[in-house]
Amino acid sequence: MKVVGIVGGIFGIIASLLAMLLTLIESTYTVGNFGLLGIAAGVLGIIAALLLDKKPIIGGVILIAATAIGIYAVLVYFLLPGALMVIAAIVRMSQRDQSY
Q1: Cβ atoms 38, 74 nearer than 8 A
Q2: N or C: which end of the chain has fewer CB within 10 A?
Q3: pTM for this entry
Q4: DSSP class of residue 31?
Q5: 75 versus 29: which is more confidently predicted?
Q6: Rounded distance, CA 91 to CA 93, Å?
Q7: Residue 63 neighbours by CB under 8 Å, 6+ apart
Q8: What is the dihedral of CA 37, 40, 41, 46, to 10 degrees?
Q9: Can you tell me whether residue 25 is helix, strand or coil?
Q10: Section 68-84 average pLDDT
Q11: Per residue in 24-52, pLDDT tens?
Q12: Quick check: helix, strand or coil at residue 50?
């Protein structure tokens, strides 16, 4: 699930950059300014996905928080990355620790 979280974070960064680009075309800067917050949420999602193997509860909570921040920042553009990050968080947090 770490890979799904990382992909969600990368898609979040791309979606935020896309939102910022589209605001330059439309010349409405409200979403463009929040695009930086969306990029920060994507980076936070990547860091949290890397934490999922060692500390699944903390990594999952941070992934869900990054999703909430990203959806607040760039709204519709962050839905697909947010869904990927939430799925990775819920699946990893619900698994029992399996040591082999």
Answers
A1: yes
A2: C
A3: 0.85
A4: H
A5: 75
A6: 6
A7: 5, 8, 45, 48, 49, 52, 85, 86, 88, 89
A8: 170
A9: helix
A10: 90
A11: 776 666 666 788 899 999 999 999 999 98
A12: helix
